[in-house]
Design a protein that fits this description.
Elements: E1 2-8, E2 14-19, H1 22-27, E3 40-42, E4 47-48, E5 59-60, H2 62-71, H3 74-84, H4 88-106
Antiparallel strand pairs: 1-2, 1-3, 4-5
């Protein structure tokens, strides 16, 4: 099952829509069950990333990840890269994509 979080731009409620397959998701008209509006904004939920022994970085919200990256503390950013087992350049690109999505929600 695939779940997606949204905020209705008409009634302001947050909702979760669930689909059995990606094909079902693609074919669906995403509709607010409260007011019937199709004017929805998809929300970013928690990001789960496989890590090693330090569980601090294994599951972070996008906001927490951005906070580490934007905090400017090089040792903390490096520790996050190492714990996630990620290529720093690839994780940086992922963070930039998340940052764009978060900025889009604020507009």
């Amino acid at each position: 099952m695939h779940t997606y979080d949204y905020r209705c731009n008409v009634c302001g409620r947050e909702l979760t829509l669930t689909y059995k397959t990606y094909t079902d998701y693609d074919a669906a008209t995403h509709t607010c069950p409260h007011c019937g509006s199709t004017d929805l904004t998809r929300l970013i939920s928690r990001v789960a990333m496989q890590g090693t022994s330090d569980r601090r970085y294994e599951t972070m919200s996008s906001g927490e990840m951005l906070s580490v990256l934007e905090g400017g503390n090089r040792s903390e950013v490096d520790a996050m890269y190492r714990q996630l087992g990620q290529d720093p350049a690839a994780l940086g690109r992922q963070a930039e994509e998340i940052k764009k999505q978060v900025s889009g929600l604020a507009d």
